[in-house]
Design brief:
The strands form 3 sheets. The protein has a 3-stranded antiparallel beta sheet with strand order 3-6-7. A 3-stranded mixed beta sheet has the order 4-8-5, with no helix packed on it. It is mostly helical and 590 residues long. It is built from 15 helices and 8 strands. Helices cover 57% and strands 6% of the residues. About 20% of the residues have low confidence.
Length: 590
């Protein structure tokens, strides 16, 4: 448009200038007028175009803004719709839960009424039976008194008759009648010992006869024809090879010999059965070998309230189980392990990292810890102790822990988690707490666990929870120890042994946490200084020095086998006990 106007004005100016008869001043004036008209028209056209472009941009801005607002409104509407649906679903769930709780409350009320009725009936029945048995006891007591009087009269008469005949009365071997109370069960009556005097040397034979009558044909060597008390395929115990001889020793770097008298590192044919080691007295000399059945190493599973001695006995039994597992699945002289030492970090990274985490201790770098691990694995005498440490480390940190009981029940888990947070707060650095405050939390924690184990309504759930927990931990421990097992050992056989270990530790953990006492364990760091009060050096004899001298010489710990154990008993405020029950077994080096 602008170009056309300019061209028309130029043509008009040209025509006027070329038209004859028009003066020159008219031509110049017409040219100026046309230029002004052209300039004004062009300016007006440019202003109109600029206004048009501004209007288009403003309209486009409004359109984009409206589209943005529409999209935001749509997203907000969708979010509100989802939130509304979620709230409606939650409301329906809460309504169903309220109905379920109402039904449960109604059932509990009916159950409470029934239990109250049964309790009253049982109380009435108990009172009647108590009265009846009381009357019977009185009658029986009178009858016994009458029979005893008759017996005295007959003995006096027999003595008089014997004197008349001229013989001495031998009433010592007379069998006295059994005046057992009617309240005694028949099974107890059948097992009563004869009242005739029994010599002290023959008492074990009498007890053996009683066991034969109840449990089958038992012999004095522990074998049984009816009860599997004796394992004919188990390794034989040779007391002469471990109880009376000095244990072989090994210097650091020497691959021959053994660093202690633990039978698990001897040849498999001479390895000890769990619980049959010789007892070494305070002087350090081995004493008479003790038979396994006479040692107090067992888990009192049927005892409700454990004491300090029960914990010590259970820990000893657990260590015997671990040693038996090592003898069965790891201690071989001719078979190599499933994974070679140099291939362990490449093929079994989990096991390698677990061992490195144990021995990291005071080593500065990971390469130093790795070299130390490879050195320990290269010494055959050290391998049983590594497996012992792996087992004890996992069992203490994963099973002898209050977190073991989380997962039994949602309601119980909330209470247990809150109490366990308070228990962990007691052990933090700088935390201050009184014995009363700690014991209140421990008692509440023990009460909840005891309720879960003793409540009949939770019996089936607790049984399933215990089995699942034992199987899980046994499987994890089996995967950790699998690369170190012998080639011929099957996974199923090893899993059975590990499951027995985990089950025993599970029972120990439950009994300890139900007792109101606390069991504290500590694994010292590798590379730390040896301390005699809390550590026991198993290779002490190779240094030809006492433990106090090694502590004075600042000997270092090469490897930690077992933790230092302490039991704290604060149930009685007037007699609080903190007993150190076990030193940490370590391998030392200079």
């Amino acid at each position: 448009m602008v170009q056309r106007i300019r061209s028309q004005a130029a043509m008009t100016s040209t025509w006027i200038s070329r038209t004859p008869g028009i003066p020159h001043d008219y031509v110049a004036r017409h040219a100026r007028m046309l230029n002004e008209i052209t300039h004004n028209a062009v300016t007006a056209i440019h202003d109109v175009c600029r206004q048009r472009d501004d209007a288009r941009r403003e309209v486009q801005h409004y359109v984009q803004q409206n589209l943005h607002f529409e999209e935001a409104s749509k997203l907000e509407r969708d979010q509100l719709t989802r939130e509304l649906n979620r709230m409606i679903s939650r409301e329906n769930g809460i309504k169903k839960e309220v109905e379920r709780y109402r039904d449960s409350a109604d059932k509990n009320k009916l159950e409470l009424v029934r239990l109250e009725r049964d309790a009253r009936e049982f109380q009435q029945h108990h009172e009647r039976m108590a009265e009846e048995w009381g009357q019977r006891d009185d009658q029986q007591f009178k009858h016994v008194q009458a029979l005893e009087g008759e017996l005295k009269r007959l003995r006096t008469r027999n003595a008089e008759l014997a004197k008349k005949v001229g013989e001495e009365p031998e009433d010592v071997n007379v069998l006295r009648p059994d005046f057992s109370s009617p309240s005694v069960p028949e099974s107890h009556k059948k097992n009563n010992l004869p009242s005739s005097p029994v010599k002290e040397n023959d008492s074990h034979k009498v007890l053996l006869n009683m066991l034969n009558e109840r449990y089958g044909n038992l012999t004095l060597d522990g074998k049984s024809s009816g009860v599997p008390f004796y394992n004919p395929h188990g390794p034989q115990w040779n007391a002469a090879t471990s109880g009376t001889q000095r244990p072989p020793t090994v210097i650091a770097g020497n691959t021959k010999g053994n660093p202690s008298n633990w039978p698990a590192v001897v040849r498999r044919g001479n390895m000890a059965v769990a619980g049959s080691e010789a007892y070494a007295g305070p002087s350090g000399h081995a004493g008479t070998s003790v038979q396994p059945q006479l040692l107090g190493t067992s888990i009192a599973r049927h005892k409700d309230n454990w004491e300090l001695g029960d914990i010590v006995s259970a820990i000893d039994h657990l260590e015997h189980l671990i040693k038996g597992y090592i003898v069965k699945c790891h201690a071989t002289d001719v078979e190599p392990p499933k994974v070679q030492n140099n291939m362990l970090p490449l093929q079994e990274r989990a096991t390698s990292d677990y061992i490195l985490h144990m021995i990291r201790g005071q080593f500065i770098s990971g390469s130093q810890a790795h070299n130390h691990m490879m050195y320990l694995l290269s010494v055959p005498a050290f391998r049983p102790y590594i497996i012992m440490r792996l087992s004890l480390d996992y069992l203490h940190k994963k099973i002898i822990s209050p977190q073991l009981f989380l997962g039994m029940d949602d309601n119980l888990d909330r209470h247990l988690a809150a109490l366990q947070d308070r228990i962990s707060a007691f052990t933090r650095v700088g935390a201050l707490s009184s014995s009363r405050e700690r014991q209140i939390v421990i008692n509440d924690h023990a009460r909840i666990i005891k309720h879960a184990f003793q409540d009949t309504a939770l019996a089936a759930r607790m049984t399933e929870f215990r089995e699942n927990s034992i199987n899980y931990h046994a499987q994890v421990l089996s995967e950790i120890l699998k690369p170190l097992r012998a080639m011929s050992v099957q996974d199923d056989a090893a899993f059975k042994s590990l499951r027995i270990m985990v089950a025993g530790t599970w029972d120990i953990s439950s009994k300890v946490w139900m007792s109101g006492m606390t069991l504290h364990f500590l694994f010292p760091d590798c590379g730390c200084k040896f301390t005699d009060p809390t550590m026991k050096a198993i290779n002490l004899e190779q240094f030809q020095a006492s433990a106090a001298e090694l502590q004075h010489l600042q000997a270092r710990v090469c490897f930690v086998i077992s933790p230092s154990l302490t039991v704290r008993d604060e149930r009685d405020e007037n007699n609080m006990i903190c007993q150190h029950i076990r030193k940490s077994e370590v391998i030392i080096m200079k």
